[in-house]
Amino acid sequence: MSESTKKLTCTIPGSLWSALEERMQRTGETLDQVVANSLNEELGLTQHTIFQVSTSGALVKGVYQGFVRMGDIKRHGDFGLGTFDSLDGEGIMLEGHCYRAGSNGTVSEVSENVLTPFWVTTKFQTDRKEDFQNVLHLEDLCDRLSAMRPSDNLMAAIRIDGIFSSIKVRVACKAEAGVDLVSAMAHQHEFSYQNIKGTLIGFYTPEYARTINVPGYHLHFLSSDRICGGHVLNLKATLLSVAVEITSDFHVALPENQAFLLADLTGDPAAQLSKAEGSSR
Ligand SMILES: [Zn+2]
Fold it and tell me: Do residues 207 and 215 touch, judged by C-beta distance below 8 A?
């Protein structure tokens, strides 16, 4: 599904060929898949992988204590979103740089030692590209993004560049430990911008994974001058350049701190998530 592919011709020992055939028979993989996966592993590449720390269900229950350094997150991706220790702002990662949109709406780059309690990242690679004209609102954008995905059951990373005739974002404010997400988000700040150039960074998560990540579309905004940003609530635009990465490879690292170990993560967090995140399907 990548934009460019190359044909590989090489000579290998007969014993290795037999092992390859055995593997293909056993797993049903094609030769191309086995070779690509083996080379990825050997060369240390993790293509089309989404890597996440903690779960949306844990956030809903107030498990906001940062436990992974942003420097470690960067080993898994150059693109993504999340939040920071105690829900202190909105996290945005673009082209290997990590930013925090603070409660006054302004953005600053964060150091590698800053801790995150929840982050989603990927080494972004475009599978599908399209231009959207006259996007009326967030729901309209989500409908058109859905038409670009082959299935509702795979995850996707989404990068959108353009000039937004209007965009409304919110920024979380620092919460006390143990305060649940809905209560914490009651103190969010909202900001609106007009005719602003920037990028949307986001993910699509299947409905069945709603205890793990925010189901539907979750988009953060970063202005091209890197001055403002936040979690997207609504928008309008005349022309947007949209790139989508589809992936079936999803890795989750769970916290081992007491707050996570002792949290009651049973039940369905979807209603609270949708209330707190203003998420769209
Ligand atoms: Zn968000």
Answer: yes
Q: Does this model's pTM top 0.85?
A: no
**Ligand 1 ion: nearby residues, β-carbon < 5 Å:** 231
Ligand 1 center–CA 159 separation, angstroms: 15
Inter-residue contact 137 to 234 (CB < 8 Å): yes
d(CA 255, CA 211): 15
Instruction: Give pLDDT, residue 257.
Output: 86
Over the stretch 108-147, which tens digit does the pLDDT of each residue have? Answer: 999 999 999 999 999 998 889 999 999 999 999 999 999 9
Closest by alpha carbon to 141, among 235, 70, 260?
Answer: 235
132 CA from centroid of ligand 1 (Å): 23
